[in-house]
Design brief:
Blueprint lengths: L2 H12 L27 E2 L6 H8 L2 H7 L4 H14 L4 H25 L3 H8 L2 H34 L3 H7 L3 H11 L1 H26 L3 H7 L5 H4 L1 H14 L2 H10 L3 E2 L4 H38 L9 H12 L3 H33 L5 H23 L4 H15 L1 H11 L2 H4 L6 H27 L1
Parallel strand pairs: 1-2
Helix pairs in contact: 3-10, 3-14, 3-15, 4-13, 4-15, 4-19, 5-13, 5-14, 5-15, 5-20, 6-7, 6-17, 6-20, 7-8, 7-17, 7-18, 7-19, 8-18, 9-10, 9-18, 10-15, 10-17, 13-19, 13-22, 14-17, 14-20, 16-17, 17-18, 20-22
């Protein structure tokens, strides 16, 4: 028996009586965890203050938060801010609140059952349902990767003058970054992500200071407007922001990442792990909201205020910042933040792709191979669009990718809500009825908005 098999055998042996791998609500044994080489690899402390315990759990939430500020989100936020000013800030806020609720359910599922969402879906549904769910998850990951490919390539182009078509191909090399970080351990991956998030936040803080937005208008923008449903164009961008904020692959990702902590198997330890992991993700998502709102505020304070309502391309926004803000530093900071977002997002896409494939299909292939397959699928349409339609079409492709994500959301949210509401599957960690009710309303709102979007597109 090799070392990895021995470690997994020890994992199964760790499960105490009364918490068997074959629980009443599940049809099959729990099996090996996704990201098995990272499972319970980060030590936690059972004693000390809440703050000391929390430090050990900080990390996964920030990897999840990366998905809420990826390059696709930039495109939708820039377009929304330029077109409608501060009005879509309310969508960013509501999307973030939805994300906090849904990610808390992911935490509960992963810690309580030892299964990620992909594994739970595979066990809970017949094959004719689980396969479409898997395909939906793969489509979402591909759409996410498409946004990362284009965003990273634009960042390289803005900073180093690299042609976009070449930059798209260069992004395939990011697999080596993932492999290098994984070799040092999961904490190094988290540290890298948090460091880049800090750079992004600093870049936008400086740009917002230069833009001098109308803060009264900003506050008013966080209040929902009835125009959202009356204006099809606003609804399209709103769904793009929603798809870029509440991302399907993040639900699979988070339910797997929380299991990187060695929190123990007793009910008390699991309950504390759920609490601390939820705090981690909530704080991280508040940071994501700050950055997302900053992108929209920057667009509203610069482009919308000066009458440039059609700014949707990232490179276009970059070129306009210097004359509008009177500083060459602003576009440089914009490009640096964009490149950091692309690098960060590629890490989370790799991990979520691995979790989805292993969970649904029980296929275990080398992470670099999985990464290359996903990246090649994303690179092909990006190259085709760049060559055929020109670089100016990339912004619309970014927004479209986020709408595709929104359309895929129900296929991840509905199973998550149903599974975490099942006492047979969750046992004493079943989601409270009030939490399930809120999550169900969120799912219903998203489905209804998606249906209206499809109807508007079908009827012109």
């Amino acid at each position: 028996m090799d070392a990895k098999s021995s470690d997994l055998s020890q994992l199964h042996a760790m499960v105490p009586p009364g918490d068997s791998l074959m629980t009443g609500g599940w049809r099959n044994e729990r099996g090996d965890p996704s990201l098995g080489d990272m499972f319970a690899s980060v030590r936690t402390t059972a004693k000390g203050s809440l703050w000391r315990k929390l430090i050990a759990f900080l990390g996964p939430g920030y990897l999840v938060a990366v998905g809420y500020m990826d390059p696709g989100n930039w495109a939708t936020s820039l377009a929304g801010g330029a077109k409608f000013g501060y009005m879509l800030l309310s969508v960013a806020l509501l999307s973030n609140l939805m994300a906090i609720v849904l990610q808390s359910l992911c935490t509960r599922l992963g810690v309580a059952t030892g299964r990620d969402l992909a594994q739970a879906c595979r066990d809970s549904t017949p094959r004719w349902v689980s396969i479409p769910l898997w395909l939906s998850a793969e489509i979402a990951i591909t759409a996410t990767d498409l946004a990362e490919v284009i965003g990273t390539a634009i960042g390289l182009s803005l900073l180093f003058g690299l042609p976009l078509s070449i930059g798209v191909c260069v992004t395939a090399l990011d697999v080596f970054l993932i492999l290098a970080l994984q070799a040092f351990g999961f904490r190094w991956i988290e540290a890298f992500v948090v460091a880049l998030l800090g750079v992004i936040a600093l870049c936008f803080a400086i740009q917002i200071g230069m833009a001098q937005p109308d803060w009264a208008g900003v506050m008013k923008g966080f209040v929902p407007s009835s125009q959202l449903l009356a204006n099809p164009e606003m609804l399209y961008l709103a769904l793009g922001i929603l798809g870029a904020t509440v991302m399907p692959h993040n639900l699979y990702l988070h339910s797997g990442l929380v299991q990187t902590r060695g929190y123990g198997d007793s009910p008390a330890e699991k309950r504390e792990a759920i609490t601390l992991s939820t705090i981690d993700s909530t704080v991280a998502l508040c940071l994501a909201l700050t950055i997302n709102a900053s992108i929209l505020i920057l667009a509203a304070a610069t482009f919308h205020r000066t009458g440039q309502h059609d700014v949707a391309e990232l490179d276009q926004a970059h070129s306009f910042l210097a004359p509008l803000l009177g500083s060459t530093l602003a576009p440089t900071l914009f490009a640096i933040a964009l490149l950091c977002c692309g690098l960060n997002s590629t890490i989370t896409a790799t991990l979520s792709g691995q979790i989805v494939m292993e969970g649904f299909l029980q296929w275990r292939i080398a992470p670099w191979l999985r990464r290359m397959i996903t990246r090649m699928i994303a690179i092909v349409p990006a190259v085709v669009v760049t060559i055929w339609a020109g670089e100016k079409a990339t912004g619309q492709l970014l927004i479209l990718s986020q709408v595709v994500l929104s359309l895929q959301l129900p296929f991840a949210i509905v199973p998550l809500v149903l599974i975490t509401a099942s006492r047979a599957k969750m046992g004493q960690f079943v989601a409270p009825r009030w939490l399930t009710a809120i999550a169900a309303v969120i799912a219903a709102v998203i489905i209804a908005l998606n249906a209206k979007l499809v109807w508007d597109l079908a009827t012109g």
